[in-house]
Amino acid sequence: MASVIYIFDKLASERVSALMFFHWLNVSHPELCCDPEIGGCVVDNCGLLGNFEAMVPILNEFNLKKMCLGRRAFRFLVILRFDDDSRMECVRRIVNVLNEVGGLCQSSGFRVLIEIFSFSGNFDVAEFVIGEAGRNVNRYNYLLRMMCKRGDYEKVGDLVEKMKRCGVEPNGSTYNMLVSCLFKIGNFSEACQVFETLEKENGLPDEFTFDTLVRLLCKHGQIDLALTFLDKMTLKGIEPNSLTHAAVIKCYFEYGKYDEAHTYVVDSTCKGSYSSNENYTLLASLHLKKGSVLHSQKILHEMMDKGLKPNYSVYMKIRKSLERKNKKDMSLELSRRYLSLIET
After folding, report:
1. Residue 59 in domain
2. What is the mean pLDDT of each run of 10 residues along the chain (344 residues)?
3. Looking at the 3D structure of the chain, how many domains does it have?
4. 17 belongs to a structural domain
5. Nearest 5°: CA angle at 33, between 30 and 39?
């Protein structure tokens, strides 16, 4: 296949049509023409030569083969040095082609266009594509994701407002990205305000939104705010997932609040958390990493007294650490308790 792509590249560099070569390939090696990379090469060649009409039958054939378009298909948009007007005219012609053929080529093609212009920072063109493709929350969310990848965090809020003005209602994923971006620029109060507005306007946010917010707060050391939202989760009957519990415990540890971390684990166990085993094991593991093997041993004793089984790997690490410190009796006692627990 490499030799075929080389031929397409050579034709492209010399601005020679690849249609005859593609038609010959379709007859002599039809299996190659089912490859998205090869398909992208011929579409790209048409674009380089401005032959948009020739794209239509090719894309119709791709639709029949259930082929999606990749970035290679529109590489010419990067190679050709358009001024603003020429670029928009070219995009309009591509959009017309995609709307004419429909199917997988249409949906994948629009996605690739949004991606290409987002990566190059041409968000206005990406928004134009969304407008032509049909405004919906998934396309806007994809553009938002590209903005986040580029680090254009401050533009995310503006785009969310534009969505609303265009009659596209943001969903949980939209707000998760907005909140995440606000955190990355250090705007914690506005992030929490966005969340509270979401709660007020749309009722109960989903657990993913809650978990995302709490983890972000912990990541940025905002433990008090994180606990406020954890309390809200409890009031609404939403159980934090194991990653969220872990984020809170690690945040306490990072700031030297070991007693608070222990209290949090105990309280979550009392509330019947399904991740109690993981929480206790993580707590023991963090104490071990800190060099406090005796404390980690006590944590394992405490959890096993409650009928909770530690992670085997962590349990063995603590046993071996005790033995290295000549605490063989403690290691044997830990082993006795562990075996007693798993045998019951």
Report:
1. yes
2. 85 89 87 85 93 94 92 89 86 94 93 91 91 90 90 87 91 83 83 76 65 87 89 85 94 94 92 87 95 95 93 94 93 92 78
3. 1
4. yes
5. 165
